[in-house]
DNA sequence: AGTGCGATTGACT
DNA sequence: GTCAATCGCACTA
């Protein structure tokens, strides 16, 4: 699970959907080497990489390799646990299923922006990762990409309604 | 210095 | 279901 500590209180949720952007993946922002924007992807695994897309959305990633190697995991959806009233305020909606279903919504629900880029998520602080119960895991192709779109690198909890994307990509059972 | 576009979302038919 | 908004950044010149 991911925990956000704010002056107004704590916000947290179970991570129910992720996508991997491994070493050598042309869709990974680190693919063409380090820049000012993607520097956090090259930090020791467990650091936050936050970036801004489409002029409107922040994306929260966790770096996943050794220092100097650029790769990470995008957090795509949460099942809200603590601080749902704060999430409702940040997201400007009351619907529980709309609070953190989708990567941009997730970042907004946690009040994430570039100021959290580079934070160590494995240490106490304003944003950190905690152990949590795991459920049945499903996998699919990634969502929304133009490059390397076919790779099966999206992982989600089967049957969880807080998972984003079309139903066809989030089957309830394997078959 | 100028240009094209993206790991999306929310509004609308 | 479709589609435009919006802006930082990488890339070309």
Shape: globular
- The CATH homologous superfamily corresponds to Methylpurine-DNA glycosylase (MPG)
Largest sheet: 8 strands, antiparallel
Number of helices: 2
Helicity level: under 10%
Low-confidence stretches: none
**Strand element count:** 8
The SSE order reads EEEEEHHEEE
Write a compact overview of the structure shown.
The chain has helices at residues 84-91, 103-109; strands at residues 2-6, 9-21, 48-53, 57-63, 72-80, 127-129, 137-140, 154-157. It is mainly β and 175 residues long. Strands 1, 2, 3, 4, 5, 6, 7 and 8 form an 8-stranded antiparallel sheet that branches.
Structure in words:
A hairpin with a 3-residue loop joins strand 3 and strand 4. 41% of the residues are buried. The protein has one domain: 3-methyladenine DNA Glycosylase, Chain A. The chain is built from two helices and eight strands. The protein is globular. It is mainly beta. It binds a DNA duplex (13 and 13 nucleotides) through residues 19, 21, 27-29, 32, 35-37, 51-57, 59, 61, 74, 76, 102-105, 142-146.
Helices and strands, with pairings:
Layout: E1 2-6, E2 9-21, E3 48-53, E4 57-63, E5 72-80, H1 84-91, H2 103-109, E6 127-129, E7 137-140, E8 154-157
Antiparallel strand pairs: 1-2, 1-6, 2-5, 2-8, 3-4, 4-5, 7-8
The structure holds a DNA duplex (13 and 13 nucleotides).
